[in-house]
Structure formats: C-alpha cells, structure tokens
Amino acid sequence: MTTGSHEGEVGMSSQRVSGTAVQRTIAVLGSAVFFVVAPCTLAGLVPWSITGWQLRPPFLGLELTRGIGAIMILAGVPGLVDAFARFALQGLGTPAPIAPTRNLVVTGLYRYVRNPIYVAVVAIILGQAVLMGDWRLIVYGALLWLAFHVFVVAYEEPTLERTFGTEYEAFRAAVPRWIPRMTPWRSK
C-alpha cells in the first residue's frame, strides 16, 4: 500500500514538473514574440524611422559623446534580454499584460530597480540619440519614459499589488521604481 501511495505521489510530481515545463515553454515563446513586438519596435524600428540611423554632428561637437551613446546601448541590450528571460523562466509568464507572470520576479536586475525593461528600452533609445547626435530621439525617449511612468503608476503597480500582495509591497518598499539601488535587494 505504501508503494502504491508513493508511486501516486511520484506520478503527481511528474505531472507538476511537466506542467511547469509546458508553462515555461509557453512563457518563453510568448516572451520572444512580445520582445519582437514591443522593445524591438520601440527601441529599434521607431528610432530608425525617426533617424534613418544617420549620424549627425556629435552633441557638443565632441566625438566622445558617440562612445557614451554606444555604451548606453551596450548596457541596455543585455539588461533587456535578461529581464525578459527572467519573466519567462522564473515568472512563468511574459512582460505583456495579457500573459502576466505567475510568480513575482525579484532577481537579477530586479534586485536593483523595479522596472529594468523600461529602463533598458529608454537607455537604448537615449544611447542611440547620443550616438547619432539626434535630439529628436531624446524627445522620443523622454515621451516614451513618460508613457511608461503613467502605465506603471496607473496600471502595473496596482495590478501587482492585487496579484502578489505583501510580497510585492515588500519589493516595492525596498526597490526604487526608476533609479537603481547601489546594492542588491534580497527578499526574505
């Protein structure tokens, strides 16, 4: 009788593992689609349509500014990819509101800032502005950040609070919305 009971538990455990694997696969695919639709459009297609990726004279007449822009882009891209991967692999969902995570993601860059995806997208856009010497991208980046801010405050934060309760409240109290912490936050 004990063996039968144990086998049933193993079978249920296998179902949970395979169910999680299926959820993770769906989350990865959904996140990949959303990655192309949202950040690639906002930080790639729109800046290209504004600038044609044509270099203008560097800001302040200093070629050095182009290097700063490149660093901003190079810092933003891996952060963006990492945050998307964490949504799929740890959160078992996507950054898209229509397919949210099942788990609150509080690792990686989320230990420093609550919105690393938005921060990375804006950094990539502003990096392109500095690299190409194009003020129009600075305006676009500022307007996009404002839209992100309104969305985060009006929709995202209240939704996360309802969904994750005290876990999110502790995270929100310890981790800044936009300006990263100097040291990583560790959930208790």
TrEMBL record:
Any Pfam family? PEMT
Gene Ontology MF terms: methyltransferase activity
Keyword entries, A-Z: Membrane, Methyltransferase, Transferase, Transmembrane, Transmembrane helix
TM stretches of this protein: 26-48, 68-89, 109-131, 137-155
Location in the cell: Endomembrane system
Q: What is its main location?
A: membrane
Carries keyword Transmembrane helix? yes
What's one GO BP annotation on this UniProt entry?
A: methylation
User: How does it sit in the bilayer?
Assistant: Multi-pass membrane protein
Gene3D superfamilies according to UniProt: 1.20.120.1630
Q: Which GO terms describe its cellular component?
A: endomembrane system
Q: Does the keyword Cytoplasm apply?
A: no
Q: What is this protein called?
A: Isoprenylcysteine carboxylmethyltransferase family protein
Q: What organism is recorded for this protein?
A: Bradyrhizobium niftali
